[in-house]
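Renewal narrative, Specific Aim 1. Our central claim is that a sequence can be written position by position from structural information alone. The example that follows is taken directly from our test logs and has not been curated for this report. It begins with the structure tokens describing the chain, in the order in which they were read.
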């Protein structure tokens, strides 16, 4: 299969959606009032054999928006230090972080012949809620992500591996997971991307996707 055919297959695989894995570390659970502290996204691609693969990672430390709430318990959980000089040197605003992520996501959508990105996340509703709130707060008009559809790897891993915790699901899939590195948006996003690809590819290898394609062809014949 050529690269062009692989791109075409990607567009067909998820109903013209391009899956993009997203993880956010936040200052709490309230998407409207709590700060986004880190955001990362991993775009996915497909090889000539039809296997889904992680492509590129984009990750940013984020400066809390004006008036944002940050719970100490959230900082304790993630290990993020807002007063870390290195963090302060590289942290960007929500608007800048979203712009830097949305730009390559739009390019990936176009290059794969897709129409829109669909968020993939571990407990995706949480990340999707914060992402949508930030988009609205920043007045972004061209959000490449579908506003409410998403793929939740916690649910998928519960089905495939009987595990819903990211670390346990990764290990069940044969993916190394370092607990000491967890709760970094970059690390969690990259492991979630590997997990999602592993589950999609396993389903393909078992004949699921090919079977669905064949059944659709029979129905249309």
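The sequence written for that structure reads:
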């Amino acid at each position: 299969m050529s690269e062009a055919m692989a791109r075409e297959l990607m567009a067909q695989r998820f109903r013209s959606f391009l899956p993009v894995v997203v993880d956010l570390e936040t200052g709490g659970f309230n998407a409207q009032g709590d700060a986004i502290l880190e955001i990362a996204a991993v775009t996915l691609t497909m090889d000539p054999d039809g296997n889904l693969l992680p492509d590129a990672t984009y990750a940013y430390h984020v400066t809390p928006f004006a008036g944002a709430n940050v719970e100490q318990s959230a900082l304790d959980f993630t290990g993020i230090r807002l007063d870390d000089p290195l963090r302060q040197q590289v942290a960007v605003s929500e608007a800048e972080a979203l712009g830097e992520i949305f730009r390559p996501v739009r390019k990936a959508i176009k290059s794969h012949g897709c129409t829109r990105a669909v968020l993939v996340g571990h407990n995706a509703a949480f990340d999707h809620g914060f992402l949508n709130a930030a988009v609205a707060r920043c007045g972004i008009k061209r959000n490449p992500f579908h506003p409410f559809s998403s793929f939740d790897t916690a649910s998928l891993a519960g089905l495939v591996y009987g595990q819903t915790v990211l670390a346990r699901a990764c290990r069940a899939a044969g993916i190394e997971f370092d607990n000491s590195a967890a709760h970094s948006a970059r690390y969690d996003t990259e492991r979630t991307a590997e997990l999602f690809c592993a589950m999609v590819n396993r389903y393909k290898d078992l004949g699921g996707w090919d079977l669905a394609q064949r059944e659709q062809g029979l129905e249309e014949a």
